[in-house]
Amino acid sequence: xxxLGNSLNVPAVHALQFVGGARFLALLRTLGMSGLSQHPDxxxxxxxxxxxxxxxxxxxxxxxxxxxxxxxxxxxLFEIVSGG
Length: 84
Description:
This protein is mostly helical. The chain has helices at residues 2-6, 9-19, 21-30, 40-43, 56-67. It is globular. It starts with a helix and ends in a 17-residue tail after the last helix. The mean pLDDT is 87.
């Protein structure tokens, strides 16, 4: 938690190496990051630092799992219509 809060890269890469790239990518895809379609070797350890291409919507949706005891919560989008 401290590493995430302080943006420390080394602990993030060590965690990825412990878990394994394929397993980590599978989790990210489960969380809705469909843009990460390449083989784990393509991303390498940099995937722990954000080198994969994901949309802001995919990233925010994945973060819902952190706030919801590990369960992803699909987002509801609202359109703002300005009066005029």
